[in-house]
Structures are given as structure tokens and as C-alpha cells.
Design goal:
A: 252 residues; mainly alpha; MetI-like fold; 11 helices; B: 353 residues; alpha+beta; OB fold (Dihydrolipoamide Acetyltransferase, E2P); 6-stranded mixed sheet; 8 helices
């Protein structure tokens, strides 16, 4: 194989005429992280609410929660992004659809990407929240209500604090996933990290440098994220109950 | 403060499977009641109905004359003034002992709350563990914290669901005596469910023996042991065997171990076969006795032996004998009956059934 390695390309001026190719990638990373962060907030809020609904005594809340999870978990992420980007503007009333289509770039891609990714991940988080709540002994909830708390207060002060601690490890995986899944948004035109790498490759033909650099950036970002989550897990762990401290037999 | 409890005709079903079928009892304010029964008899379901966690299919539950549960109408658990203690303690693992006990005291002032927590921890003998987390305590200590937490908001009724089942036997007996003292000191009404009769006898003023969703007998521990009202109660409480006898025309019950003075069971006429309950402590070892039995097996219990003896007819009975009477298996020993209160039931086909 004959290939001209040229790592210097990263510091050469990019197609925009101002910044280096490395800055193109960093710019892409910015969109990756913003999309991931916004989607993460949506996913965590919606996922928690849906997860809680699936454990309440109300039959209707449980049905709605189950339907939500099945809907967003069973459609491929790529298809979901296409639905939000291409299909939604067409099925909305014409005025609303048009204003969606005319959103200035990159918002026209960013908003559907964040919604699609957020809803997709919310179904997965809802499933984890439900499992976390149901992993608690049933006496916990009854103890809360017997002490005079209403059902919402019992969730807030008794069930959710422990359930979230239990599901922190899978939530860490979900954080990694949401960062990596933003790459799918390049298909609807968001110039995030992968798209930036591809544009660098198309202009310079330095395919290995472009994607090696992008890969390295993904790895570094995810290592930082996993380290932060581990630190958080340790900080909130209840010794002897769950988390890293439980393995060591209690930190006290 | 303490509430009286009246349960009338309580029925409950999971889906179509009836679990509680027309159960009634009442407990005076300040009393300690216990539902005792084998697993699956519905006792925990009754407790959950009392706490307000389960809807009723029929009947009513009233605290101090105020109906809190009836079909289609139920005061929510948080408004019942009921405290609860669970088999697995159900302490909140992310809160320390102080905050666990203070959990039900949110509406009080900080000073009031602190004083109440200190008093409760003192009451259960754990004044110095306030900063500890639940996992750092032993099982017995955790259950004491759970008791302090349940008593802290001054409930009118305390419900205890198999509270000592997760503890080892020694601790179980000690703690049940201790808990009784604590409950009597606070004067609260309490209802306990358990399958362990020693626990029930140690803690309760009144015991209800539950069988298949109803209470067979509601009486003092002494009475359910010595005056069981049904064959099930006689069988479930304590050890013992039934020995076949006949009601004779002189008004006595004739068994192969002699004649017994006693009340005939209802519906028995002269000449009818009866089954007489013989507890291990009803049979006394007496070398001079004309009645003999052969030792079939024995269990050393320290102070006494529990002998399984075969009578002439082959019927086996149990006898508790002081352990210095050490007889070999196969040996024939003299026994006689010493029964204060004769318990007999209309005979069934197979007395061992």
C-alpha cells in the first residue's frame, strides 16, 4: 500500500481559509458535545419521568410509560432522526413545517438531532430507572408512606435517591452512548466531529489522519466522561449498599 | 393517643384468588395483638389492609370507631397515623440513623425534632449511634432503629410485619421481650404478624391464630395453648398428638392412658369416639405407674429429654422428662397423665391427619 502520511495536515489552513484542519475537528467536537449535552438533559428528565410512571400504581401512567419505551426503543436511531428531520415538517400544518425547514443552519439539523437523540435515549433511561426502583425492597416505599409521606414525596426522598445510585453504572454507559450516537446526526447535516473528519478527508484526501484524529478525540472525550462519572459514583455511593465501595466491603 | 382497632368481616383477594375471607377481631387501645399463622395464611395481607396499602373487597376497618377502610373507600396510608416495622427493617440506606428517625418529623421545628429523635434513640437503647449508617449496625440494632423511626411521629397504631424473622434465635427472644417493654412504656396499640409462636407469646396480650384467611381463635397466649378452640389451633400451637378415646356414659373420656375428667366437645354424645390432645408436658414419667410405653426416640434438650413413646396400641405420644431420667431406646417406662384442662375434639378418621 502506498500512502503518503502527512500529520502536518492538521495544522494547515482548512477549506474555510482561516483555521487549521485541527480547529475544524475541534469545532465539530463542539457540536458533538453540545448536541450530546442537550440530548442528555432531555433524556434524563424524560427518562426519569417515564421510568417513574412505569412503577406507579396508576394503570394509565404505566401504559403510557410502556408505550413510550416500546416506541422509541424499537425504531432504529437513524430512522428516528430521519422522521424528525424529513417527515415531521411535512406532516405538520404548512406554516409550521415551513418554518422548521427554514431554520438557519446549523439549527435546522441541530434541533431535530437533539430531539431524536434525546427521545431515543430517554426510552433506555426510563427502562433503567424502572429497574432501579424495582430493585429496591418493597418495604422502602411502604416505610416512606407509613411515615406520612405522599407518593410523590416518597419517590423524591426515598425511592429515587437510592434508585439513581443503583443505576449510575448503566447511566455512565448511556453517557458514552449518547456522545458516540451524535455521529449519526451527520446524516441530517449536522457538522459534528465525524462530519468534520469526513469533510477534512474529502478536501485533503488524508483519510487516515482525518479519522485517526477524530477517533483519538472521541476516545479522550469518553475517557474524561467515564472518569467524571466514576468520581461521581464514588462520591454518592452508600457504603455497603452499592457502587465501588460495596466491593471493598465498606469504606469506614 | 393510642387507637382501638376493630376489624369486621374483612375480605381481600389478589385478582380472583381470595386471601382473606371474612376476618374479624378487635383490640383495645394500648393492647398488643398478634396474628399468628403458617406462611400463606393471609396474615401479612391483613397487616397491609390495616396500613392502607391494600383495598378491601368487603368488611370494614375502624380505628377508635372511625372507619378508615371499607370497600371503595380508604384513608391513604400517610394519613392514618400508623407506624410500620418491616421484616427487612426497611431503613433508608442513604441516610444516617438520626435522619432515618427524623424522617417522619418533617413538619416539626428543628429543636422539637432533635429532642424527639434523642428520646426515641434513648428509648430503644441506641443513644450513641446517631451518626452511623444503617449498614454499620447489626441486625438487632437496625430493627431497633426501625422501631424508633416508626414510633417517632407518635402514631396511634404500630404494625410490625415479622419484625424478628431475620434475626438469630437468641436475639429474637431477647428483642421481643425488649420490644414489648418499649411498647408498653409508650402505651401504643400494636399489631404484629409472625409465624413464630414463641415470638407471639413473648410479645402479645392477645393472639389470633390464622388459618386460610380467617381467625380460628382470638385469645390470650395461655388460652390458645391450653384451650385451643379447633383442631387446627391445637395442632399449630405447641407440640402434641391426638390420642383416640371414647366418651363414656359416666361423663368421662376414656383413653388407653386412663380416664379423664373434662368437658365433652360440642356435638359429642355418649359412646362417640373423640380425639384427646396430649401435649409433651401433659405426660409425666412415673416408674410406679401401671401405664407403660416404649421409648422410640429421644432428643436431648439440656434440662430435659423430649421422648417419643409408643403406647401399647402403637399410638405415639411425646413426653418432656427431666434429663436425669436417661432411658435407652427400646426401654419400657411408666407414664401417667397430668392434665389440668382436657382438650378433645370429635374424632376424625385418621387421628394423625
Amino acid at each position: 500500500m502506498k500512502y503518503n502520511w502527512n500529520w502536518g495536515i492538521l495544522w494547515q489552513t482548512s477549506a474555510d481559509g482561516h483555521n487549521s484542519w485541527l480547529m475544524t475537528l475541534v469545532h465539530g467536537l463542539g457540536w458533538t458535545l453540545s448536541a450530546a449535552a442537550c440530548a442528555w438533559i432531555i433524556a434524563l428528565l424524560l427518562g426519569s419521568a417515564i421510568g417513574v410512571m412505569r412503577t406507579t400504581p396508576s394503570k394509565w401512567a404505566r401504559r403510557i410509560g410502556n408505550a413510550w419505551v416500546e416506541l422509541f426503543r424499537n425504531i432504529p436511531l437513524l430512522v428516528q432522526l430521519f422522521l424528525w428531520y424529513f417527515v415531521l415538517p411535512e406532516v405538520l400544518p404548512k406554516g409550521m413545517g415551513d418554518s422548521l425547514k427554514q431554520m438557519a443552519p446549523p439549527w435546522g439539523s441541530f434541533v431535530p438531532a437533539v430531539i431524536g437523540l434525546g427521545f431515543f435515549t430517554s426510552a433506555r433511561i426510563a427502562e433503567q430507572v424502572r429497574a432501579g426502583i424495582q430493585a429496591l425492597p418493597p418495604g422502602q416505599g411502604m416505610a416512606g408512606t407509613a411515615l406520612g409521606l405522599t407518593l410523590p414525596q416518597t419517590y423524591r426522598h426515598v425511592l429515587l435517591p437510592m434508585a439513581f445510585r443503583i443505576i449510575l453504572p448503566p447511566l455512565t454507559s448511556e453517557t458514552m452512548n449518547i456522545i458516540k450516537n451524535t455521529s449519526v446526526a451527520l446524516t441530517i447535516g449536522l457538522i459534528e466531529l465525524t462530519a468534520a473528519g469526513r469533510s477534512m478527508q474529502e478536501f485533503t484526501f488524508q483519510v487516515f489522519e482525518a479519522f485517526t484524529a477524530a477517533t483519538a478525540i472521541y476516545i479522550i472525550v469518553n475517557l474524561v466522561a467515564v472518569t467524571l462519572m466514576r468520581w461521581f459514583e464514588k462520591r454518592v455511593a452508600v457504603p455497603g449498599f452499592i457502587g465501588p465501595a460495596a466491593v471493598g466491603g465498606g469504606a469506614h | 393517643m393510642a387507637a382501638s382497632v376493630e376489624v369486621a368481616g374483612l375480605e381481600h383477594a389478589y385478582d380472583t384468588q381470595p386471601v382473606v375471607r371474612g376476618l374479624s377481631f378487635s383490640l383495645a387501645a394500648g393492647g398488643i395483638g398478634c396474628l399468628l399463622g403458617p406462611s400463606g395464611c393471609g396474615k401479612t395481607t391483613v397487616l397491609r389492609c390495616l396500613a392502607g396499602f391494600e383495598p378491601l373487597r368487603a368488611g370494614t376497618i375502624a380505628f377508635s370507631g372511625r372507619v378508615v377502610s371499607s370497600p371503595g373507600r380508604s384513608v391513604p396510608p400517610e394519613s392514618r397515623g400508623v407506624g410500620m416495622v418491616f421484616q427487612d427493617y426497611a431503613l433508608f440506606p442513604h441516610l444516617d440513623v438520626t435522619r432515618n428517625v427524623a424522617f417522619g418529623l418533617e413538619r416539626r421545628t428543628a429543636a422539637d425534632r432533635d429532642a424527639r429523635v434523642r428520646r426515641m434513640l434513648g428509648l430503644v437503647g441506641l443513644a450513641d449511634v446517631g451518626r452511623a449508617y444503617p449498614h454499620e449496625l447489626s441486625g438487632g440494632q437496625q430493627q431497633r432503629v426501625a422501631l424508633a423511626r416508626a414510633l417517632a411521629p407518635e402514631p396511634e397504631l404500630l404494625l410490625l410485619d415479622e419484625p424478628f424473622s431475620n434475626l438469630d434465635v437468641d436475639l429474637r427472644e431477647r428483642l421481643s421481650v425488649e420490644v414489648r417493654a418499649i411498647l408498653k412504656e409508650t402505651g401504643i396499640t400494636a399489631i404484629l404478624v409472625t409465624h413464630d409462636q414463641h415470638e407471639a407469646f413473648a410479645i402479645a396480650d392477645e393472639v389470633g391464630i390464622m388459618n386460610e384467611g380467617v381467625i380460628d381463635q382470638w385469645a390470650s397466649p395461655y388460652d390458645v395453648y391450653h384451650r385451643p378452640r379447633s383442631r387446627f389451633v391445637a395442632d399449630f400451637v405447641g407440640q402434641g398428638v391426638f390420642v383416640r378415646g371414647v366418651a363414656d356414659s359416666s361423663g368421662r373420656l376414656v383413653t388407653e392412658l386412663g380416664e379423664l375428667e373434662g368437658e365433652w366437645p360440642p356435638g359429642v354424645a355418649a359412646g362417640d369416639a373423640v380425639d384427646v390432645l396430649l401435649r409433651p408436658d401433659d405426660i409425666v414419667h412415673d416408674d410406679s405407674s401401671p401405664w407403660r410405653a416404649v421409648v422410640r426416640s429421644k432428643t436431648f434438650r439440656g434440662a430435659e429429654f423430649l421422648y417419643t413413646l409408643a403406647l401399647a396400641s402403637g399410638t405415639r405420644v411425646l413426653a418432656v422428662v427431666p434429663s436425669h431420667h436417661d432411658h435407652a431406646i427400646g426401654e419400657s417406662i411408666g407414664i401417667r397423665l397430668e392434665i389440668d384442662h382436657v382438650v378433645a375434639f370429635h374424632a376424625v378418621a385418621d387421628p394423625s391427619a
